[in-house]
Amino acid sequence: MPNMSGHALLAFMFSRQEGKLNRQQTMELGHHILKAHIFKGLSKKTGVSSSVLQAMWVNCSTDSLSAALGSLRNLYTPNIKVSRLLMLGGACVTWCTEVIGHAPILAVHAHLGHVEMVALLLEMGAPVDGTTGSGMTPLCLAAAAGHADIVSLLCKKGAKVGLADKSGQCALVHAGLKGHAEIIGTLLGQDWGADLPADPQQPNGNDTATGKTQAAQQAVTAAASVGHMQVRRRSKKNKKIKR
């Protein structure tokens, strides 16, 4: 493994390379910048933190920050520290990826269960309700995949629980279809706002919101249709508690 000076040399090599760095090279550059620590001790002298100087370095060295952040490798095996550096350097947190219907980066990590990346993206300003091509929000994807910790985090960060995809299904229905009783309980415990009657003339889309009562009915029906009877019992239990 390279030592500090070795990392610095490799970082300078990538920075001075002719032509554009590709996604993988950009990730490697970020890794070597972080490992080199060449700005260590300079923050007191300059009044600028080392993280800012590192971010400026990576920003000046490549045009592939957003593409690297949303690369397949970083989506499926994310590097948290390098991802943070890329975002500090200017990588776009709303970047649309090549997977799950051109889903935003946050939506992909919510689907895959990467809670640290979800937290980092939210910290860096990623929209909590950014949707895929089919209108699936990060909350819908996390609920369908059974990632209870991410569902809770997204709800705490203000995700709109009633937002439905283009098929008219909100996160509660997606959780019902997969039989995720814990997630159903979490979603039913959120503030859904006023329960408005459904408008059959309103087209399904990213701005379509489902009321809590309607969503609960849809979730129970969906769960029963695929044999998840424990979800039906859980939903009835929640109704009894709230009476």
UniProtKB/TrEMBL annotation:
Entry keyword Repeat: yes
InterPro entries documented for this protein: Ankyrin_rpt, Ankyrin_rpt-contain_sf, Dendritic_Spine_Reg/Scaffold, WH_TANC1/2
Pfam families with a match to the protein in the record: Ank_2, WHD_TANC1
PROSITE patterns: ANK_REP_REGION, ANK_REPEAT
Region named Disordered: 194-243
SUPFAM superfamilies reported in the protein's UniProt record: Ankyrin repeat (SSF48403)
Gene3D superfamilies in the cross-refs: Ankyrin repeat-containing domain
This protein's record includes keyword Repeat: yes
Domain TANC1/2-like winged helix residue range list: 5-64
ANK repeats: 134-166
Bias (Basic residues): 230-243
Biased composition (Low complexity): 208-224
Key words, A-Z: ANK repeat, Repeat
PANTHER family according to UniProt: PROTEIN TANC1, ROLLING PEBBLES, ISOFORM B
The protein's name in its UniProt record: TANC1/2-like winged helix domain-containing protein
